[in-house]
Every structure is written in C-alpha cells, then in structure tokens.
Design a protein that fits this description.
Blueprint lengths: L8 E2 L4 E5 L5 E5 L1 H7 L2 E5 L6 E2 L4 E7 L3 E5 L4 E6 L2 H4 L3 H4 L8 E5 L11 H10 L1
Antiparallel strand pairs: 1-2, 2-3, 3-9, 4-6, 5-8, 6-7, 8-9
Length: about 130
C-alpha cells in the first residue's frame, strides 16, 4: 500500500489537497498516482491567476509511460505553482506530499472541500482499484 497522509484530503482522480493557514489549498498527486505514472519527465503547469473549476482539467503531467491530466479538486484561482518542477519534474515521484506539490488554489467555494475524500476513504478507493 502507498503512503496516505491522514491530514490531507483526496480526490477520486488521485490528487491531494492540503489546507494552508492563509486559506489557500496546496495541490499535488498522490503517492499512488505518481507510482502508476512512473518517472515524470515534464509538468505543464497552469498559469498563475487562472480561474479553475472543480473537476476540470488544469494541468498535465508527462511520464516515460504516458501523459495524464490533473484535475482541479476545487474551484478557485491559481495563486502559486511549484517552479522547482520545471527543472526537476521527478520531485513528484520522490516527494509527492512535500517538494513535489504542483500548485495552490485560493478557493472560490470553500464548501467544495467537504466533498473531498478523507485519508481513510481514499485508502478504501485505492484498495478497490
């Protein structure tokens, strides 16, 4: 079984969400997702200040195996992107819950967070796959 930090929220598409003290939410790919994708070689980030809708494509990651879309877990505005991934996209593989984060969103509808999965619910989803 892959690592599933208890303090994060999750989507059925294998993104994680960390609520930050300033109200923004940091987004990344789960350990399960990065493992399934294989070694990442490129990340196509959304532009800062882009408005995104929950469950809409907002980013693409490319691995040695395939390209995969990343979906916004919540609606809002992109406030930051992880510039480190431009030169070292494999940070997503080596540290998916730390230095491998993708982008941050300022939520436009914080109630959407209640629709995300807890760590336990995500673990059940992962077991079913």
């Amino acid at each position: 079984m892959t690592e599933i930090p208890k303090e994060l929220l999750y989507t059925k598409n294998h993104e994680w969400v960390k609520k930050e003290a300033d109200g923004t939410c940091k987004i990344g790919l789960t350990d399960h997702a990065q493992s399934a994708l294989g070694d990442l070689v490129f990340v196509d980030m959304p532009a800062i200040d882009t408005e995104v809708k929950a469950e809409a494509e907002c980013c693409t990651v490319e691995s040695v195996k395939a390209a995969s879309d990343v979906y916004a877990p919540i609606s809002g505005k992109i406030t930051a992107i992880n510039d480190q991934l431009e030169g070292t996209p494999n940070l997503v593989n080596s540290d998916p819950y730390g230095d491998g984060w993708l982008f941050s969103i300022a939520p436009s509808n914080p109630d959407e967070l209640s629709k995300l999965l807890s760590a336990d619910d995500y673990a059940k989803l992962e077991e079913e796959e």
